[in-house]
Amino acid sequence: MTNPQPALDLLISLPSQEKSVLRDWWIYASGAEHGDDIKDYPELWGDESGWEMPSSLADLDEEDRVSIGHWSRGSPPLNLNAIAIGLGLEQSTYEPERFNGLLYEPPGHAGEICAFYETVIATGGTGKEARELLDEFIRRLSDLGVGDEPTEIETAKVGEVIS
Question: What is the pTM of this model?
Answer without folding.
Answer: 0.81
